[in-house]
Amino acid sequence: MVDGFLGQxxxxxxxxxxxxxxxxxxxxxxxxANAETPGFRPVDVDPRAFQASLRESLEQRxxxxxxxxxxxxxxxxxxxxxxxxxxxxxxxxxxxxxxGNDRSVERLLQRVTENVYAFRAASQLLRGQFETIxxxxxxxx
Length: 141
Hints:
Elements: H1 2-6, H2 11-33, E1 43-44, H3 47-60, E2 77-80, E3 83-86, E4 89-90, H4 105-138
Antiparallel strand pairs: 1-4, 2-3
Helix pairs in contact: 2-3, 2-4
């Protein structure tokens, strides 16, 4: 029953998206916290690569035993029982400063903001899915 319903809904994809964006937010927050540290080089994962992996998994619609979407481990994130493991890459968005730091607070904040908006959109979509399920259970809108 789990595979039948969840295999056709967007809940597994939204769950994986929220997990990815949550882990990415922790990574981005670490970049901001260390922005003034000499020699620090910010890191990030490519959300477009994750979206491509997610899209490919959605086309195959492979769910694990608990109804979670199985995403290929070749992308920027690995999903396991312990959570999400990101494979960040060093950002080379800016020139190196005299202290060896590659900081651009504006660009870091832009990445944080984009991630927050994507997280909000996905969480609102998931909330809508759950409201629809609750309405169906109650048999009224």
